[in-house]
Every structure is written in structure tokens, then in C-alpha cells.
Amino acid sequence: MSESMQRLVILHTNDIHSHFEPMPRIASLIERYRREVPADELLVIDCGDHMDRAYVETEGSDGQVNIAVMNATGYDLAVPGNNEGLTFSRETLQRLYEQADFPVIGSNMHLKDSGEIPAWLKPFMIIQRGNLKIGIIGVTIDFTDFYELLGWDIRDPYAVTSQLVAKLRDQVDILVVVSHLGINYDKRMAQVIPGIDCILGAHTHHLLEEPLVIGQTTICGAGKFGTHVGKLEIFYDHDAKRIVSCRGACEETSGYPESREILAIIDHYRTIAEKNLRQVVTTIPKRLAIDWYGESELGNLLAIGLKEWCGAEVGLVNAGQLLDSLEAGAVTRGRLLEICPSPINPCKMILTGREIREALEQSLLREYQAMPIRGYGFRGEVLGTLCVSGLQIEVDHAKPEMHKIQRILIRGKELADEQEVVVGTIDMFTFGLGYLSLSRGREIEYYMPEFLRDVLMNLLDTPEHIALSAEKHWIRSC
């Protein structure tokens, strides 16, 4: 290799989602490259969603375990994903990232009140490796309606990236965008914003064992859950002032030994987390069962909670949000996490009687009840039937599919097709998952940062709500 040529190796992870099992192997893989690659040729980056509050270690430590693991693994920088930005408060994120030994880039993450990027985030970075100057831009998905409720102003990632590329391109040799946007956004970015050398992708869990190349931009992605670490090897010619080679791959982590240091960190925080989650939040007098395929007390209770939380006329939620029943006696934070792990928020919307009827008819069909759902915060197994509060539904199971419901009563009167109803439900439906007619709601209002397990916990302490959950809403028509 000529004296004017310099190599840069970028190792990148994404969407680990608190899967702690592969983290010790990821650390061993990265340590191997630290032994083989000189420090002035190596850069280690996480592209977001390292944390996930569905897991005991993260939930019980408020994310401290993830930062401790990342510190010990030796990340050089990170970009927050939506699982960091939308499931932790601003104050908690600040406390967490102030404990990080690595900088965190949030190029499009501004504070709603001041319009500024907070001091604990970097708007961009220029990193020196040998004689190479590497510009780093980090952008996260702009779920604006949600972020605003947590005090964020998440700006358009394309506009921000375009501005920063124009600012940095002449100052650096290599320009990298760390993108927690998804593969289709990354492709479009490569097409419409000239000057980006490589995009390290995340969010849509895409595994690119060979990078995509669009124009002069190389697009990478290392899958999900820590099964792979991405490797991008770049050769830069300082005399020619250009990249002469850019090769990428993804390496499986399963063949690596487990780092004892990382195992010890995880074990330490698991002990702390389990202790914290043993906190008793209430005691219930009887068993509350869940049934994914029929009406149940625990499902009804969650629907009641959504109706009341949102100040709505009706509550609707899919039974699959609840993974198990609650036994009589003490209920702990940990047990609520086990039965309701999804980081899904309440929301309020207006639906017509026709839209409600369509969803209720579908919820009688096995193909919907047993439908596997992936993404958008859902951590269950199947969609499940609809749990209801505020309605009585008369059903004739002998009738054809989508014509089984004979009448729907709201406050004792028959629900008309064009009648508008205020419904308390869940944000997942607004993304078009499961019961599609529920994605057509209007005047949507989200409630954050509370999750469904917070809604449930709010009702378990009141005997009248538990008694109300035993009432039947699905009634066989004579």
C-alpha cells in the first residue's frame, strides 16, 4: 500500500433491542479487531435502538446496563433510535448519556422549548483517524407527533442531512451518515443528497451482507438483535483525494466467545433490576385471566383503562397485548412487565360506527386473532381479538363472516354507521397494523410517556374496576 493510501475500518451495530445474550460476543468480536487493526484505522459505531424497555435488565435499571455494556465494549459514538428517544424521558436520556464514555450524535434532535440541540448531544462530529478527517452526521426517524409530547422537535432528516453535507463536505475526507431511518429512506437519501460516502443504516432491521451502492454512496445495515456486526473497509488515497475502495460485509457473532467482563456487567445490573422490579404495586383479590381468542377480565380491564385514561366513550385494545393472566395476590412491577412488555402508548381518536363495526367483525375471525404482528413496539405473539369497554355487541355466530354482528349498543342505543365515537385505544393501530379500520381515526391524540402497563397498574388498585371487568360485552344474539 502506497504512503498516500490510508485504510479505515468501521464496525457498526444496530437494533440490538436489549438482546443481552449476544452482547458479550459482540464485545469479543470488536476486541479481536482492536488487536488486528491499528487504533488510528478503526471506528466503532452503534446506529440506535440498543435499548429496549421490554427487557428486565433495561427496564429495571432505567437503561444504565446498556450504557455500561457499551462503555466496556468500546463504542466510539452512537446515534439514538426511536426506542431510546420515545421510551425514555428527556431527563432520563440525559442522565444515561452523560454516563457514556462515547459521544452521542443527534443531528436532527432539537429541544421543543429552546429549538437547540441539547448540550449532551452533538449536532455532528469530525473525527480524526491518522491523517483522515471523517465527518459524522447522525439522524433519527422523525416520529414528530410522538416526540413533541416528550418535548422534542425532531426535524426533517433529509433537510438536516442536506444542510450538514453542504457544510462538512469540503472539510472532511470521508462523510458518513449514521441513519436510524430505515432502508427506503437510506436509498432515497443516497439518490437525492450528493456527497455522502456511506450510510450506516438501522430501524428496519435490514441485513445487507453486501452493501448497496447507489451512485457514489455505499449503504450498509447489520440486521437486528446482535446476530451480526457490520464491517466497512474503506481505502482513501490522500494524493488523489478520493476513496479508491469501499468494501462491506456483516459478520455473525455466534462463533465468538463471550466476554467475561460484559457477562459480569450484565449479571450485576440484572441483580439490581430484578430487585427493583420486585416492588409490589398492588394486591388483587382474584385471578384476572387473559384470552387471546375471546372475552376476558384482564382484557376488559385494559380496555376500561384506555377508555378512562383518554376520557373516551369507548375503549378498544387487542388481547395480544397481554401475554399472560394475573394471579390473585401481590402484583409487582416485574410481573406487569412480563405480561405487558410492549412500549406502546395510549391514544384517542374519532371513529365512525362503520369503522368500529368492521374491526369488531374482523376480531371474530381466527385469521385476525392468530395474526402474527411484528414491529411498531409490539412485543407479543399474535394480534388477538378486540377487548372492549363502553359497547355491547350482539353476535350471531351462525351468520357468514363479516356479518355476524347484529347490533352494537353504546349507552343503551344502537350505534349507527355514520355516528362518530371518541375511542381510547393504542398507538399501534394508527400505523396500520392489525385491524386496519382503526388506522382511519381522526383527531388523533397520543398520550406519553405512559405505556399500557402503566394504564393497567392505574386500575388494579381499585376494586370497582376489577368488578366492572367481569361484565360481558360480547353477547350471543337469540
Descriptive keywords:
2 domains, hydrolase, 5'-nucleotidase,  domain 2, 5'-Nucleotdase_CS, alpha/beta, 16 helices, six-stranded mixed β-sheet, Purple Acid Phosphatase, chain A, domain 2, five-stranded mixed β-sheet, 478 residues
Outline of the structure:
The chain has 478 residues and is an alpha/beta fold. The chain has 16 helices and 24 strands.
- What structural class results from the helix and strand content? alpha/beta
Largest sheet: 6 strands, mixed
Number of strands: 24
Q: Using the coordinates shown, work out and report the CATH topology of the largest domain.
A: Purple Acid Phosphatase, chain A, domain 2
Question: Can you tell me the CATH superfamily of the largest domain?
Answer: Metallo-dependent phosphatases
Care to describe what's here?
Residues 9-206 form the Calcineurin-like phosphoesterase domain. This is Metallophosphoesterase YunD. Belongs to the 5'-nucleotidase family. It is a single chain. This protein has helices spanning 23-36, 56-61, 64-73, 82-85, 90-97, 144-149, 157-168, 183-192, 260-277, 297-309, 333-339, 353-362, 366-369, 427-430, 452-460, 463-468, and strands at residues 5-13, 42-46, 77-78, 109-111, 125-129, 132-140, 152-154, 174-180, 198-201, 212-214, 217-221, 228-237, 242-252, 280-284, 314-318, 329-332, 346-352, 386-389, 392-395, 405-410, 413-414, 420-426, 442-446, 474-476. The termini are far apart. Helix 10 (297-309) packs across helix 15. The strands form 6 sheets. A 6-stranded mixed beta sheet has the order 5-6-8-9-11-10, with helices on one face. A 5-stranded mixed beta sheet has the order 3-2-1-12-13, with helices on one face. Strands 18-15-22-17-23 form a 5-stranded mixed beta sheet. Helices cover 29% and strands 27% of the residues. It is elongated, with a radius of gyration of 25 Å. It has 2 domains: 5-273, 4-Layer Sandwich (Purple Acid Phosphatase, chain A, domain 2), CATH 3.60.21; 279-476, 5'-nucleotidase,  domain 2 (Alpha-Beta Complex), CATH 3.90.780. It is α/β, with parallel strands linked by helices and 478 residues long. The protein is built from 16 helices and 24 strands. Strand 5 (125-129) and strand 6 form a beta hairpin.
